[in-house]
Amino acid sequence: MAGSRPAVRPIPISRRVLLSAFLTLLSLFSLASFLFSADHSSSPPADHRPQRRSFLSLPSDPLRSRVELLRRHASGHHALASAYASRSLRLKLDHSRLLRQFTDLQLSLSSLLPRLDPDSVPDEDALRPLEKEAKDRIKIARQLVSESKESFDTQLKIHKLQDTVLSARDQLLRAHRLRSLSGSIAAASTPKSLHCLSLRLLSHPLAPKTLAPIPNLSDFFDPDAFHLAIFSNNVIAVAVVVSSAAKNAVDPRRLVIHVVTDRMYLPAMRVWFKLRPPPGGARIEIRSIADFPVGHQDLDLSTLRFYLPAIYPELRRIVLLEDDVVVQKDVGELWRVDLEGRVNGAVEMCFGGFQRFDRYLNFSHPVVAERFSPRACAWGFGVNVFDLDAWRREGCTDRFQEYQSLNEDATLWKPEAVLPAGLMTFYMTTTPLDKSWHVMGLGYNPSVSLEEIHNAAIIHFNGNMKPWLDVAMNQYKQLWTKYVDTEMEFLPLCNFGL
């Protein structure tokens, strides 16, 4: 069909046209939404809930507020003045002016406070003088507190330091008491090493033979010899006394040492000196309490010394030594000291107001108050020279027994102490010796001078720190240990810390 009209095709809608139409509609929709929201936000809110009004939005009374503020300030400074006044009274300040000023200020503020009642101030004219008066007094209070603060702080520091010192002193006293108690327990108990030594000596083959009576007992009562007496159960302590006395004697062959011990320790004591006899030819006699039927049957070593004339009737003079002494010079010189016809020769311990009779005896007891002077000077037991003839003449043993009977209820002196009994028994019959004969305190006093020790004839470890104990003072211990016979076979076996 060459001559026919061509067919008409539908024209397709372009994708670009559709996209343009869609964007146009979207723009119109966004504009409409914006206009609607703007109109809605410009309208008044539909929420008609009642709104709360704050306290500050309420109408206030300026006059009342000022009065209340003044009253609070005045009340606070009144309390401050009261506190400083009471503190100055408690601290006892030297300047009483401050106390008076704080008291006056406290009273003036007390009188001002009732007038600062908001209900009693009607207007500004009534408030003005009150305000001026209150501010002036508050200013004075601040100045006074500022000026006195340093004084109060200093006084408070002083009081705190005093309290600290008192607390430290109490702690020190408690420590001293505990130390004294511990030392007393240590001194009163027998160390394991001494128990060990006694048991080993008792197990020695010589022990059974030592119980036999001493032959030729008269050899020990030579009138030309120097006689020493020791009352002790401590084997090694007695050995040190014997060794030191013999080694420092000019003529040890003239030395006779009388040892008295409990029956239980007699074999051990005799075995020791059988194995290790005194050096230099010194003689030693060892007997037990049971060998002396004198006085009461319950006598112990501490009271047996008051029966020396009955124990040794053959002797006219004797030197009594404790078992905790060390002899450093010839004891023969002590033997020859002139006692001026008196019974006892001893070194006095008193100096100033210390170591007087009133320390050892109960002067509230009528017998003590009647017979003795509280200011009489005490002397030391441990190194004593006794004239046994004068002792018998004065009847000192009978006197001792009388005082023992009076002290059955322990009202004259403490029954465990022996020195008070000696002070009473030998009162007015004691000749003071030169202090170099007997230097005491090596068992408790760390301040004994080396010069005193060097010049002393006999040093005494009286106190709880005995040289054979672990609590001994190291600066003095070597003075004792150098006389210990370290070659004795039993000492290393018993752990003696020498």
Spell out the CATH superfamily of the largest domain.
Spore Coat Polysaccharide Biosynthesis Protein SpsA, Chain A
Q: What overall geometry do the principal axes of the alpha carbons give?
A: elongated
Radius of gyration: 51 Å
Helix content: 40-55%
Secondary-structure-based class equals alpha/beta
Question: Can you offer a commentary on this structure?
Answer:
The protein is built from 18 helices and nine strands. The chain has 498 residues and is an alpha/beta fold. It has two domains: 64-171, no CATH class; 195-493, Spore Coat Polysaccharide Biosynthesis Protein SpsA, Chain A (Alpha-Beta Complex). The strands form two sheets. A seven-stranded mixed β-sheet has the order 3-2-1-4-7-6-8. Strand 1 (226-231), helix 6 (235-247) and strand 2 (255-261) form a beta-alpha-beta unit. Helix 2 runs parallel beside helix 4, helix 5 (192-202) packs across helix 7 and helix 14 packs across helix 15. Mean pLDDT is 82; it is low at 1-11 and 38-58.
Topology of this protein?
Elements: H1 15-42, H2 62-91, H3 96-112, H4 124-188, H5 192-202, E1 226-231, H6 235-247, E2 255-261, H7 266-275, E3 283-288, H8 301-304, H9 308-311, E4 317-321, E5 325-327, H10 331-335, E6 344-346, H11 357-360, H12 366-371, E7 383-387, H13 388-394, H14 396-406, H15 419-425, E8 430-432, H16 450-455, E9 458-460, H17 474-481, H18 490-493
Parallel strand pairs: 1-2, 1-4, 2-3, 6-8
Antiparallel strand pairs: 4-7, 5-9, 6-7
Helix pairs in contact: 2-3, 2-4, 3-4, 5-7, 14-15
Main location: Golgi
Protein name: Hexosyltransferase
GO cellular component, one term: Golgi membrane
